[in-house]
């Protein structure tokens, strides 16, 4: 599905509060886009609008030239997957079964080879046989990523649109790097298109092709990491004292907090 994903002037009002205010964006195939912004900026709400879990009160989202609301849930679930911020399960299933749930749009029985392959890619193989509710928060995040990739697996690779809400929040350094390297490499292969909410601006600087900065429901800045991550802008939008410098060995900005 090598077509664009667009949000055209979308707004979302709830209980009289404007949570998303006239946001327009375009996500292109083969691109990894990071969505950043302070707590409460509306990142999770925007992700829910982009993925069809919420309907905009103004404007619309369009996937492959067709408004999102005209896609049937069954077809849509083959082209876009979502990894949510907090994924609790009400039942205690083995890891393989949780990942296999991702295959529901394609088959009644999860194909063991696909489950094994996404477990290998996401570093979940050592979790085989464990029960989901007994895993640490970071281990559960890895399983949720595997489930989302399983959902998009088609013709030997994950294909389509993947939306993730703070997928690294519980991961250690090794697994942060592993997840972002994996997403970047799958994106570069051209079949997967990624939009990821990231809290860690330095991860966004290292891996995102483009960054969107949200503040109080509005898109206040977007562009390359170089363009969006600037000292004055981050001080203004986050209200924190920061200094933006350079990565010592890569040509990307890195953000430092002042003590
Ligand atoms: N169901 C809701 N009803 C009313 N306000 C909500 C609801 N969900 C979120 N909000 C508010 O919307 C704003 C944006 O929330 P959210 O999208 O979760 O922000 P972020 O993910 O950027 O931290 C916050 O002020 C939050 O309190
Ligand atoms: Mg959020």
What does this structure look like?
It is built from nine helices and 14 strands. The protein is α/β, with parallel strands linked by helices. It has a domain of 181 residues: P-loop containing nucleotide triphosphate hydrolases (Rossmann fold), CATH 3.40.50.300. Adenosine-5'-diphosphate binds next to β2 and α1.
Attribute tags:
binds magnesium ion; alpha/beta; Rossmann fold; six-stranded mixed β-sheet; four-stranded antiparallel β-sheet; globular; 259 residues; binds adenosine-5'-diphosphate; 32% helix; 14 strands
Question: What layout of secondary structure does this protein have?
Answer:
Blueprint: E1 5-14, E2 17-27, E3 32-36, H1 43-50, E4 58-63, E5 66-67, H2 73-79, E6 80-83, H3 95-100, H4 112-121, H5 137-152, E7 153-154, E8 157-158, E9 160-165, H6 173-189, E10 192-197, H7 201-207, E11 210-215, E12 218-223, H8 225-228, H9 231-238, E13 242-246, E14 253-257
Parallel strand pairs: 3-10, 3-11, 6-9, 9-10
Antiparallel strand pairs: 1-2, 1-4, 4-5, 7-8, 11-12, 13-14
Helix pairs in contact: 4-5
Helix count, DSSP H or I runs of 4 or more residues: 9
Query: Spatial order of the strands in the main sheet?
Result: 6-9-10-3-11-12
Distance between the termini: 47 Å
Mean pLDDT: 95
| Tally of DSSP β-strands | 14
Helical residue percent band: 25-40%
Assigned CATH class of the domain at 5-86 and 159-257? Alpha Beta
| Oligomerization status of the protein chains | single chain
CATH topology of the domain at 5-86 and 159-257: Rossmann fold
Bin the strand percentage.
25-35%
| CATH homology superfamily of the domain at 5-86 and 159-257 | P-loop containing nucleotide triphosphate hydrolases
Small molecules bound in the structure, each named once: adenosine-5'-diphosphate, magnesium ion
Basic shape: globular
- Structural class of the secondary structure composition? alpha/beta
Largest sheet: 6 strands, mixed
- What pattern of helices and strands is seen along the backbone? EEEHEEHEHHHEEEHEHEEHHEE
Low-confidence stretches: none
């Amino acid at each position: 599905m090598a077509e664009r994903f667009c949000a055209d002037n979308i707004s979302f009002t709830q209980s009289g509060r404007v949570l998303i205010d006239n946001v327009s964006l375009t996500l292109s195939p083969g691109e990894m886009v990071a969505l950043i912004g302070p707590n409460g900026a509306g990142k999770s709400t925007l992700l829910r609008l982009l993925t069809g879990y919420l309907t905009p009160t103004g404007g619309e989202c369009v996937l492959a030239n067709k408004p999102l609301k005209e896609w049937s849930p069954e077809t849509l679930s083959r082209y876009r997957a979502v990894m949510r911020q907090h994924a609790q399960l009400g039942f205690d299933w083995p890891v393989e079964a949780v990942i296999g749930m991702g295959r529901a749009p394609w088959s009644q029985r999860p194909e063991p080879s696909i489950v094994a392959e996404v477990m290998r890619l996401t570093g979940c193989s050592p979790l085989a046989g464990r029960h989901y509710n007994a895993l640490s928060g970071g281990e559960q995040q890895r399983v949720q990523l595997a489930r989302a990739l399983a959902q998009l697996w088609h013709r030997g690779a994950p294909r389509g649109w993947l939306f993730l809400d703070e997928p690294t929040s519980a991961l250690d350094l090794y697994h942060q790097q592993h997840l972002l390297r994996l997403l970047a490499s799958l994106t570069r292969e051209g079949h997967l298109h990624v939009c990821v909410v990231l809290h860690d601006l330095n991860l966004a600087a290292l891996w995102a092709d483009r960054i969107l900065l949200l503040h109080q429901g509005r898109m206040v800045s977007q562009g390359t990491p170089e363009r969006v991550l600037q000292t004055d802008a981050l001080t203004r939008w986050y209200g924190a004292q920061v200094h933006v410098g350079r990565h010592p060995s890569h040509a990307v900005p890195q953000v430092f907090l002042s003590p």
